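re: ur question from earlier - yeah i can do the single chain one, its not a big deal. heres the input i used so u can compare w yours
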Amino acid sequence: MSGSTKNPVGVLVMSYGTPESMEGIEAYYTHIRRGHPPTAEQLEDLTERYRTIVGGVFPLRENTNRQAAALQRTLDEVAGVGEYVCYQGLKHAAPFIEDGIAAMAADGIREAIGIVLTPQYSAMSVGGYLKRAQDEADKHGISFKGVKEYHLHSELIDALSKRVSEGLNKFGDGRAETLVLFSAHSLPAKILEMNDPYADQLLATSAAIAQAAGVDKWQFTWQSAGQTGQPWLGPDILETLEKLGAEGVRSVLVAPVGFVSDHLEVLYDIDIEAKKFAEEHGIRLERIRMLNDDAQYLAAMADTVIGLAVGRKSDES
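and the output i got, formated as tokens:
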């Protein structure tokens, strides 16, 4: 393609969102709770978690900004400057998904592709993002198509398998005895009644990474379940670690394949909470590096976006 297209394709890069500062935590939490403010205890618990991982600075939002900017650069390199223009749309923070679509409309965009930073599909996660974007696009007369998943893209699997191999090297002579524990954000268990593909896609991603990295000893577990009073997918990572400890496992490498950047569920739930719990059960726990703005991860997203735009199947070889 040349870079002379008069009407570029808009690319809405979507993610869960995170507060921009400590002061924004309450508004963020209230939005997650559908307009119901958290109790003082709930707010303090979440604030303390953020305080623990970021100290006096708040760099988490920058991860998403860097990913969107890196996707723009990758699309420019692959397709030509001016063919695609990236916009951000967040689920629980500004700019919201609707803001991203509105910005496209203001810029005269007539055709758009939506992609969520999470590679695996669930009707309760990615499906919700795409529906919000589609509804807003319809209001503005923008033709919209959404990427459902790219969980087996060869560039993604290669990037993650390299991180698993690198992580195992931390254990030195104990590498062969180390168990790789793949994890992802739990969702309400009712998705199983909906034949939702989320769990199966996560297992497929994990198996592909394990095969590429030559790993035989691995399991999958869930983490970061919400406190909603309803059953969530399990077992939780702490339950899994307790069981592994009882079975004599002494070294675990966590590979959070359901997440793509350093944020609360990784920096607190794994690096602090799970690591401390593991130590208490005689297990050394390490974690792989997150993808963040990794070139291969962005290449997988760019290839998937372009594939949907031009009507070809993305690379899943």
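The beta strands are 9-15, 84-90, 111-116, 143-146, 179-185, 218-223, 251-255, 284-287. not sure if urs matches, ping me
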